[in-house]
Amino acid sequence: MNIETFVKEFAEQFDEIPDEPFTADTLFKENEEWSSMTALLVIAMIDQSYSVRLTGDDVRKSLTINDIYTIVVSKANA
Amino acid sequence: MAFLHIKNVVIKGVSACVPATVQENTSLTNISAVDMQKLIKTTGVERRHIVNESTCTSDLCFKAAEKLIEELNWDKNDIDGLVFVSQTPDYILPATSCVLQNRLGLSTDCFTLDISLGCSGFIYGLSTIAGYMQSGMIKKAMLLTGDTSSITSSKDDKSTYPLFGDAGTATALEFIEGEEGLKFQLGTDGSGYQAIIINHGGYRNKFNETSIIANSISEGITRTNLHLVLDGMDVFSFGISKAPESVNALLARFEIDREQVDNFYFHQANLMMNERIRKKLQLPEEKVPFSLKNYGNTSSATIPLTMVTQSADSLRIGKNENIACGFGVGLSWGSVHFTTSNLIVPDLVYYV
Question: What is the DSSP letter of A3?
Fold first, then answer.
């Protein structure tokens, strides 16, 4: 598991390619496209690629892609 | 893990009743057209049948039951059990199943029971009623399931109202010696009890003057404490992991050959979630019927409603091997395997 791949997988859940490419520090909720539907796509991607169950609270308390990544890492290792 | 194998009990018939009134999701004016298109694409729900304020779940179930008993040609005096699964009962007390026993004209020798479950309710209801019948002393019994979630959801809550429809169903079971019966896997995770909840009106948070105040939660979400709250993200991640796990556990425990199963009926939650579940289980589309598009999520009615509206023709003729899986509010889940033979499936009943 590495952050570069994770950011790429995360970005793939968006239809539009943003002007500034996503990085680990991107505040993803500020992206215009972000909605509860995008959240479901991210949850599905994490379930598929990492077999981790991300909760609503996990998403709500996260600001950056790295925040989500940290949760996935800690849950995958639990 | 809770597994059950209840032999000598067979599902003989399934019926469903929906309100005649249809509400198109595109006609909802408090959600923008762009948002609605997105919502329909993700959830798969285009329209729903909804009750008027004076209709209860029991009214829909009553109609479904009457029609089924008639087409089965059953003598009502032979029905010794009635289980009603719902989270929209007629009263806080008495149990709605008692009211229905009398209304349906069933014998006073009939046992009745209410079960408070939603999405997993059909599976739990089946396991309960079949368990009662297992000893062979009760020959015929009815399971009624359904909800009127259009009443419990706030019309100003885009996270619930466009998803839920209303329906009531009836399932007839009979004790027949030598039959393979029903196989179950059941589970619960109460740590997620808040993921789908109505906060007020019970005894933890009694009805009071704050119960009916409209709270603006976020854009497009306004509701009172008597309305349904749904944490879509929690439920989604629960569903896509637990439903396939439950079906796989059932298949493995009872050594069921998945290739031999004709129909996989899943609780109709939302299209994206259900498609994810189907793909995880590597099931072909033609074996997984969907009724979401025209009826939405009808809680404990989704599985029998899907059987009636999507595969009545094939269920009516010959043998069908079926798996059904319900998952949601509780959090609670369950899967069942059962075989039907020339199932009695009346046409969908409309409640006017």
Answer: H
Structure tokens at B114: 């209410």
Q: Give the ipTM.
A: 0.88
For B93-109, the DSSP string reads SS-HHHHHHHHTT--TT
* B278-287 pLDDT per residue, tens: 999 999 999 9
User: Which residues in chain B have Cβ-Cβ distances shorter than 8 Å to A16?
Assistant: none
CA dist B264 and B259 (Å) reads 11
DSSP B206-251: ---GGGG--EEEETTEEE-TTSEEE-HHHHHHHHHHHHHHHHHHHH
DSSP-derived pairing of the beta strands B319-328 and B332-341: antiparallel
Does the predicted TM-score (pTM) go above 0.90? Answer: yes
Q: Please check whether residue B40 is in contact with residue B25, taking contact to mean a CB–CB distance below 8 angstroms.
A: yes
Q: Establish if A25 touches chain B: CB-CB under 8 angstroms.
A: no
- Distance from A23 to chain B by nearest Cα, in Å? 23
pLDDT tens-place string over residues B93-129: 999 999 999 999 999 999 999 999 999 999 999 999 9
- Give the three-class secondary structure for A12: coil
CA of residue B79 relative to chain centroid, distance: 22
DSSP 8-class letter at A77: T
